[in-house]
Amino acid sequence: MKTSHRYLLLPVNNSVPIQRISICAPGAEPYELDVKYDPAAPRYTAYIDISKFGDHGLSVTLADGSTPEYSIADKLPEDTYTEPYRPQVRFSVPRGWTNDPNGLVYAFGTWHMFFQHNPAGTEWGNMHWGHATSSDLLHWQYDGDVLFPDRLGTMFSGSAIVDERNVSGLGTGGYPPILLFYTAAGKPFTQCLAYSDDGGKTFKKYPHNPIVGHIAGDNRDPKVVWCDELDKYVMALYLDGSDFALLCSDNLLDWSEFQRLTLPGDAECPDFYPMLLDGRERKWVFSGASDRYFTGDIKDGRFVPDGPVKRLFAGDRESYAAQTFSGLPGYRRVRIAWNTTWHNFVDSPFSMSMTFPAELELRTIDGVPTLCASPVRDIERLFTDGEAAAYYAEFDAAAESPDAAVRVCGTEIPLPFTGRQRVQVILDRNGWELYTPGCGHYYVGGGPKDAERIEYGAEEVSARGATLQNISLHRLRSTLPVSHI
Questions:
Q1: What is the pTM of this model?
Q2: Class of the 96-375 domain?
Q3: What span, in angstroms and rounded, lies between the C-alpha atoms of 262 and 408?
Q4: Which residue among the candidates 38, 49, 100, 428 is catalytic per the annotation?
């Protein structure tokens, strides 16, 4: 087959066994995917990006050598983003499965979010890096997949930075290069690099990968940040169990380990960044995928925690693998996490979403440096007098019983704290987020169980087992390319 089309379409049914499908082109490395291929009774269609093959002749085969049934298309279907169960103000991939946010970076006036993506199904597998961009942190444009599985493995999580001084030497165009650090999940797991020299329009893999060989276990999820105290770049890397490593580099290509540390009760997806405590004192934050974190300092060439482990997200695993954006001016910290509260329906062409972007501050609470999160202030730009795609509520709540709850537009949300707190709530079609920045916690939950979406009720806020004051409730317009209420 010769084609200049972008997508290869395959019929999928999550109820059938996986089959391996190979897509090959002359001179190109074979592209292999595990697909629940079912031409007899498909439940949805997977859209596989084949644009990287250009006009070369493609062959598509199953493991037994036969040719599967497929078609081709230039674009995603017209009804993408119109499903009734789509989140309206939180990012979701057009089609396929998504999990961890990767490579969050603000570069040249654009917010870039990469993420774990399976384009061939709505369950975990075939890990790619998907790519979305935004000019305002609210409205996201899906730009396709940029990192594809290769001979070193599938594309697991990682981070991104702008190499402002071009210490890597990879910047050959008019822009400093954007570097993507990722895990190649092969045998063994190694750490690799991809880069863009055109401002983030296209990416290519570093020809000398891997840049960090195997250290221990399924070591993965590199987070890279500049450290003034060491005058070096630092990579935080998950090792095994609850153990992590810190590595350093002068050129972002050659790395050496200088410290190991344990984050009790946590694993995977480290984040490491400086903040100002109470707007004055510089501190470092080291966190894991389950939002447990240390605060501390860089002393004598090492990260030294200043107290016991703490936790920002106070739920189970509804929010996971949060990462903060690099490239922001000053000490501003914006984070996005994987929202796991909603799984795919049988016929859904997509599964999972991200949390709403949150602003972080480091405050002293009861004498302890504590991370606090709130929805980014940009949410005010979504306030509308028109039809509501989602809601934002803010109020003071005094919880008076262990089962205290607030009801926002017909949806009951627990108030899992004692005493009085200022509370912020985002209510979306696929769940809610509740923030209590005064005590350093936030919560995610409430995905629909037996219905396609949360149905909004009366536009009011009330409580059970709690007293509410200073209530404000705002309608939010949709951030989707096509709004469907």
A1: 0.96
A2: mainly beta
A3: 40
A4: 100
